[in-house]
Amino acid sequence: MVNGFYTVGECSCVSVHGANRLGTNSLLDLVVFGRAAGNHIVKHASGMKEHKPLPADAADRALERLAKLEASSSGEYTQNIANDIRAAMQSHAGVFRTSKLLAEGVAKIDELKDRVANVHLKDKSKVFNTARVEALELANLIEAARATMVSADARKESRGAHAQSDFEHRDDENWLRHTLWFSEGDRLDYKPVHMKPLTVESVPPKARTF
User: Fold this and answer.
1) E strand spans, the chain
2) Do 121 and 75 contact (CB within 8 A), yes or no?
3) Whole-number pLDDT of residue 20
4) pTM score > 0.85 for this model?
5) Average pLDDT rounded to a whole number, residues 113-135
6) How far apart are the first and last CA of the chain?
7) Among candidate residues 149, 147, 145, the one with its CA nearest the CA of residue 103
8) Residue 178 bridge partners (DSSP)
9) What pLDDT is recorded for position 32?
10) Could you tell me which residue, 33 or 153, shows the higher pLDDT?
11) Pairing with 68, which of 43, 74, 88, 95 sits 20 to 30 Å away (CA)?
12) Which residues on adjacent β-strands are paired with residue 180?
């Protein structure tokens, strides 16, 4: 937990819409919890005197990333790897998924992870260097791809936008839970979905039909 740091919307994961992201229905997350977060910020900030001191090595990781790009003399260009990441996600983690496609996608993204570590920054200018920004963002791109692919491969059901052709039905007994992905070792963990609202009756989940 970071003192004074708040999240609102999809990244806050407050279980309002569960796994069903279709139709921009995260609006409720923004409207309701945006207001709640704003109110809490005012209350919290008025009683907060100071932040905890930063660790002495707080900037080391960021500086290491910059230094590695600055020292690079060979390797692949950012856009080539980024394009391959996008192609892999489109091919293996599209709207309609199968166990075979997802397993192949996990292996493909793992290969791309190694290529990201070998990116080369040709333009080392100091002013308005968008190539450096894109190279730094590539590390974020592969993290998001790994999280999505590994998590989807593990989820043996269909839920919301995750339409798994080999597991066509939603499995609330085993998969009514949020997925937590950890970069080290592609480790997965899970946390429960909050099913009890504060002031109204809970609406039980049911099959998505049209």
Assistant:
1) 96-97, 163-164, 177-182, 187-192
2) no
3) 56
4) no
5) 94
6) 41
7) 149
8) 191
9) 78
10) 153
11) 88
12) 189
